[in-house]
Design a protein that fits this description.
With about 240 residues, this protein is mainly alpha-helical. The protein has one domain: Rhopdopsin 7-helix transmembrane proteins (Up-down Bundle). The protein contains seven helices and three strands. It has a three-stranded antiparallel beta sheet, sandwiched between helices. A hairpin with a 2-residue loop joins strand 1 and strand 2. The chain starts with a helix and ends with a helix. This is 7TM_GPCR_Srx domain-containing protein.
Length: about 240
């Protein structure tokens, strides 16, 4: 299974670079008169983020293990170069930022696309900026949560002891491999059971996606109603009388 994981990582890197680079080239070379400038910028951000995600998640690919109520993060490649705790913590937060961003940002693109297709209006700078800000803020909060919960006081030999005890064999990882770990805690320092962690990540992604999507729909509904009210104000007044 470890070799399968390694193959998937390399395949994701190649496909990610080729697909996102192709998309970036298409957007850049697309005729100016046939595209909306601000929507094109939003798409460029999406594919550039996808390209960076492909590279970073392959170069800084990791094993995420739960050992004795600790979440252990292990860099697969070049682990010996990242001995510095703060540097490792930064890369962990950085990778998780892109994990969330590539999901949440899709909601923003859907909203922008709605403006262009359904409302047949140009996407202006204010609208595009609002979409970007409201999609990036929850991702920053999620990555900061990872940064805050990392605990430097976790024993460094926790991984080595676990490998030795269970006779585990992983590509590029041995008992001497340096790893970074932190307690599985909430924002209020209450312990969270390890079995709940995948569900918590899914819930966070689901909530972030829906908040952005609902915000866009409410925003659109408000202006559609306002436009209808303004257009048919006289007719409504006449019917009431």
């Amino acid at each position: 299974m470890d070799y399968v994981s390694y193959t998937i990582t390399i395949s994701a890197l190649v496909i990610g670079i080729v697909a996102n680079s192709t998309a970036i080239c298409v957007i850049v070379n697309y005729p100016v008169e046939k595209k909306n400038k601000h929507f094109g910028i939003l798409l460029l951000i999406q594919f550039i983020a996808g390209l960076l995600t492909s590279v970073f998640q392959s170069v800084f690919s990791f094993y995420l293990l739960i050992i004795e109520n600790h979440l252990v993060y292990i860099f697969n490649i070049f682990d010996s170069y990242w001995y510095n705790f703060s540097l490792k913590r930064f890369f962990i937060s950085f990778v998780f930022f892109f994990l969330y961003f590539n999901v949440v940002y899709v909601a923003g693109i859907v909203i922008a696309r709605y403006y262009l297709v359904c409302k047949q209006n140009d996407l202006n700078l204010k609208q595009a900026s609002s979409i970007f800000i409201f999609t990036i803020i929850p991702c920053i909060c999620a990555s900061l949560a990872i940064w805050i919960t990392v605990n430097e006081g976790i024993p460094k030999n926790i991984l080595g002891d676990w490998i030795k005890k269970n006779n585990i064999s992983l590509i590029g990882i041995s008992e001497s491999t340096e790893a970074i770990a932190f307690d599985i805690v909430s924002f209020f320092s209450y312990q969270i059971h390890s079995n709940f962690l995948p569900g918590i990540n899914f819930i966070v992604l689901f909530i972030c996606f829906n908040i952005i999507y609902i915000f866009g729909n409410v925003y659109n509904y408000h202006f559609v109603c306002k436009k209808i009210q303004k257009t048919y104000c006289k007719l409504f007044t006449y019917n009431v009388k």
